Amino acid sequence: MIPRTRNIVVVLVVVVLVVAGIGAYFILKKSSTSTCGPSERGYICVDQAEIPDSLDPAVTFSTPGWAAVQQVYQGLINYNGSSVTDFSGVLAQNFTSNANPANNNTTSWTFTLRSGVVFSNGDPYNAYVQWFSLYRSLLLAQGPQFILEQNFFSTNFQPSNPLSYYSNITNVTAANVTLLNDLNTWNFASPSTSEVALMESPNQSFQVLNSGMIRLNLGYGYLSSNYTYLLASLSAPNSYAVDPTWVEANGGVQNNTPNDYMQSHALGTGPFVLNGYNGIGGGGYTLTPNPKYWAAGAFTAQPWNINLAQANTSVEVVFQDAIDITSNDLTRGAVQEASFAYAGPSTIQQLQGHSNVVVQPLPTIYGATSGSWWMFLNQSHAPFNNLSVREAISHAINYQQIISSAFGGYASQWVGPVPPSYPYNNNLTAKLPYESYNLALAQQEIANSPCANDACKSIVNNYMFLNTGTDWAVATQYLVGDLGAIGITINPVGVSLAQLYQEQAKDKNGNCVTNSSANGGPFYIGQEFYTSDYISPDDWTSNDAVTLGSANVCMAGYSNSTVDTDAAAASSDANPTDLTGYYSNMTTLMYDNYSAIWMVVPTSFGVYSSNLHGFVQNPMASAEPFAIGFNTQWLS
Fold it and tell me: pLDDT digits over 289-327, tens only?
């Protein structure tokens, strides 16, 4: 299994969630940057702390980006309401799977598309358009490319010798040149007979069956196998349909390069039209109901399928990151929803006191999806290369004190590498206890290590922590005392999110940045977290468990061939008994190694106006508040 190398999602939280932590009490300002006030009835007004990275569904790899494109673009499927394991058709009427004997019996998924689907400019959608969209996403090769490339790859239209992730690079380059020309010159609304024949060619990742059916053939990506969580991965924006005619008229497709026009403009089949995008602080965008929306009849036939619902009202999003202004906008009714980059218990307590604001603690999976946190101990560097030292640290930490004092009680413990409430999460598989505070046991372990009798006390270990608010800063001060009690000295060094991502990577010479002095390092101990691209255990183990996982290779340096083998097997095995065994074994092996000390999952909150109705919560959503779309929302 080839692990993912990704541009990690560039926000800590998913839209309206609030990561709990101790925060200063803010003086609420009387002014607001919002241009959408309480007198502007009919609009849902949103203060959003962060700006999208892109409006191109094949490029965006951030929560605010996904929040925008999911209102405008649609894919074959999406999550079914509040479920995180069930999926309903969107552009697809239905979908089935079967073994593909032409490719080692890996699975093929056949999608029967809905008829009458059009983009908001009236251009038609069909299987040829979907073929274009999927291959375009692969050719752009941007951050989210791995989501498709796990299972799919470019095509050379040669059934007897198809391309795969492991094909000769010279052949791949040549095929991509041809495919790029095809994407930029064919008429996908009405392709020629020869063009249709190429799109219908078997033994390629995306195979058109006819204008209303497309087959996705697994096994050509880097997994070279089936994928247990394919439907979850297809719900991500980089599988969404884009209009080839519109793309061609505005810059076309380039290899490995985003389309500049599509970075700030959007046109899709979805319930909203996006206008007036201004990607700077104080800017924003407006969503208005799509006058040519195609799904009225489909929604009547499937009223439970909220992905098909027409938009009720317009939405105005303002990029505004001052937490005091956002709080004031909420309490005085200037906005109905808000996306906080960070807000602690003090802000929550202020908002809870207002009858016109709903402050709703959300189930654990919402916090787990947006960010589950652990401490890494690099087992390649002293003193953390000693098992007894690592185990001593795991018992020296007063977890409940951190939860109570640093997070105001708004957090819970977990056992990794799969976070709580996920399918096959650790408490359901390995049934291991949480890490526990036991100072006597910690001292016993340290006495059996090279750090006995304070032998390591004079070694100052730079401790990296994410300095996004006072919660982790306060938690880190408790860690200074906890670890000092067993003779381990840490020097807390706060880093930004961008710096944390730098620390996860290697420099141009292939050396881990964590081993250098960059950002106040080296860091052989510190804080790490992950936020999901989509809900699947594999999305986590490929990051925090396998040898080359981006949150592992330069952090803990944990490497276990059995874990690598189990993670690869679990990604392609749909048998529940097998999956339970794989994830249980991975969890136990990592638990007993102590190179990852599983810390806490902060509580997430939905925060919105009491006159906002019709939102359907889903922890993988990217629109306020944890709703996949604004289309079902309305104001009283």
Answer: 999 999 999 999 999 999 999 999 999 999 988 888 998
- For 111, the token pair is 């999608």
Structural Rg of the chain based on CA atoms: 25
Domain coverage including residue 289: 1-49+271-362+606-636
Ordered DSSP codes for 565-594: HHHHHHHH---HHHHHHHHHHHHHHHHTT-
**Region of residue 52 (phi > 0: left; psi between -120 and 50: alpha; otherwise: beta):** beta
pLDDT at 5: 33
Total domain count for the chain? 3
Tokens linked to 527:
């804080």
562 three-state secondary structure: helix
Low-confidence ranges of the chain (pLDDT < 50): 1-34, 39
* 3-class DSSP assignment, residue 139: helix
Give the predicted TM-score (pTM) of the model. Answer: 0.88
Comparing CA positions, the residue from 268, 278, 228 lying closest to residue 58 is 268
CATH number of the domain bearing residue 450:
3.10.105.10
Residue that finishes a domain, picked among 262, 292, 307? 262
Q: How many CA atoms lie within 13 A of 585 on its CB side?
A: 17
Residues 537 and 397 occupy one common structural domain: yes
**Which residue matches tokens 């007063």?**
398
How many angstroms separate the CA atoms of 46 and 187, rounded?
39
- How confident is the model over 424-433, as pLDDT tens digits? 887 677 788 8
* Structural element, H or E, at residue 156: none
- Specify the DSSP class assigned to residue 204: S
What's the pLDDT at 348? 82
User: Going by C-beta distance under 8 Å and a sequence separation of 6 or more, which residues neighbour residue 365?
Assistant: 84, 419, 420, 421, 422, 535, 619
Based on the domain organization, do 421 and 497 belong to the same domain?
yes
Distance of alpha carbon 548 from the chain centroid: 19
In a domain, 391, yes or no: yes
> What contacts 35, CB < 8 A, 6 or more positions away?
316, 318
